[in-house]
Each structure stands twice: as structure tokens, then as C-alpha cells.
Amino acid sequence: MKVTILLTGPLSLFELACATELFALPRPEFGQWYSTGLVSLSTNQFNGLCHTTLVCEQVEELPPTDLLVIPSYPVSQTEVESKLSEQILRHYQQGGRVISFCSGAFLLAELGLFQGRAATTHWRYAGQFKARFPHVQYQDDVLYLYDGRVGCSAGSAAAIDLGIEVIRRDYGYHYANTVARRLVLPAHRSGGQSQFVQKPLAVAKSSVSQVLDWAVKHLSSELTVDRLAQRANMTRRTFDRHFKKHYNMTPLEWLNERRLEVAKTLLETTSLSIDLIAQKAGFESPVTLRHNFNKTLSISPSRYRATFQSSQQQRA
């Protein structure tokens, strides 16, 4: 699977580093992995911070690629160079995928790739994005959006969240989780950008976050929201209110997400029965497992296993 990282300038070292870490770093522990190149259509040299210079390959046209990654794009630039526009649109029209990090969403919006899609970017650019692209359905409180063809992420570290989601869809949950662990990150971060807009998260763990750390290690059908509230020394109503405020979801939704993560891992990596997987993941019954799979993922557990186990075996 071929990936091309496209530099458009000015150089954003962090977002570029995210792209190369996610898709270009060799991972010999996997049977197959991405083949990644770094190119520019305009120059072979970019200046970075602290008097740094990056030299890359300059090309007349984009090489054949499955996934095009745009780490950044000048927010103030309202006209897209004809060659850049032509090459990206040709790639997309031929069935290729395109994702952007941070300000790269402005380029995708200028090219009309968000037609009929939702979009996001860094919260500091949200007002500017909405004003320039009123026809685009903008979502404030998300870390990333990806529909399998086009993706975009909020600023900085949210690029990694989007990249891990792309890896999960390409290679399965096991690959994505392995990459996340190497980055010392969770495979999925709940919540959106709003928690970062006014102030950073507190370093000290709240009673709620401590309870969630405990809950991840004690998932079972007996683990209920009432029990979590008790462990946090809160009433159920107070716990629900605090949880919704800080995580932008209900405690039950969070519990179901964690249980689904366990179930997906077991479906991909083991031959355990659906009944046993439901038990190990903390669902009340196989029926509950199937209901949550269909509701959240629009696929049955058996179909999920057939899709991801077979794809991983083919890549082995």
C-alpha cells in the first residue's frame, strides 16, 4: 500500500513528523506495511524553524499512490496553484484517498473535497474556516473525521489520532493498537477539541479519570455506571454530569466503547467463540454484543472477524 506525503509549504515540522512516524517508519514486526515517499510539486527545499532546512524530492506529477497525506497548508492562501490542484484532484478522481492534518483542511476545502462531507481543523482556525467555506458542514468538537476516502484532523497531536484510524481501517485493530503503543498513546482518544480550547487538561488525575483507569482493567458484565459513580464517591447524577462535561459522552457510551475495543481485538486475534468473547469483553450476552456491534459499527461480530482476520492472514 503506497503513501505519498505532499509538502506544500510553509514547512510544519510537527505535522510532518507525525506523517513520517505514522506511515514511513519501518515496522518489521508486521508482515506488510506502507511504502511511503515524501515529495513536493513546487520546490525541493523547505525552511523550518531554528534555521533548519528540509530537502525533498521535487516531482512534476504525483506518483501512483493509495493514500495522499497533506501535513499542512498556508491558511492565508486563497488560490490553489494549478499544478497542485490538478494533481490532487486527479489522484482523488482516480479513486485515491486524501487526508490532511491541521491547516491542510483549508486546501481540501478549496478543492471542493468536503462537498457532502463534514470537516474540522485546529480550533484556532475554526472561525476563519467557517467564514471562508460556509457551505462545508464544520464540526467543532472532534479530533478528526474520516469516511474512508477523505479525512482531516484538528491541530497537532490529533493528526496521530487520524493516522491511527487510517491504519486500523487498512490493517486492522491489532496493527493500529501496536502503533499506538509504540507512540505511548491510546488507540482511541475519546472527546473532542473543546477540552483544549481555553486551558490544558490538569496534570493531576481527577477522581473520574482514576475510576476510568480502574474500569479499563475490570471490564465485566457486572461493571455498571452506578458502580463507577460509587467508586468516584459521587451520586449517579453528579457523575453523569461531570462525565458528560469532560468527555462529551455518557458513561454508558464510554463503557460500550471500551468493551467494543476488547471484543474487536479478540475477534481479530483469536478463534474464541462469540459467546466467550462477549463474556470477556464484559457484555451481558452475545445478543448484547451483536446489538452494540451493529449499532456502532454497522457490522456483525462474525462479519468483522471474517473481514479483519482474512485481511491480516493475506498480509502475513
Automatic annotation (TrEMBL):
CDD domains named in the record: GATase1_AraC_1
Gene3D superfamilies: 3.40.50.880, Homeodomain-like (1.10.10.60)
Keyword entries, A-Z: Transcription, Transcription regulation
Residues in HTH araC/xylS-type domain copies: 209-307
Coiled coil: none
InterPro entries (alphabetical): Class_I_gatase-like, DJ-1/PfpI, Homeodomain-like_sf, HTH_AraC, INH-QAR
Molecular function as annotated in GO: DNA-binding transcription factor activity; sequence-specific DNA binding
Database matches in PROSITE patterns: HTH_ARAC_FAMILY_2
Membrane-spanning parts: none
Name of the molecule in the record: Helix-turn-helix domain-containing protein
Species annotation: Bowmanella dokdonensis
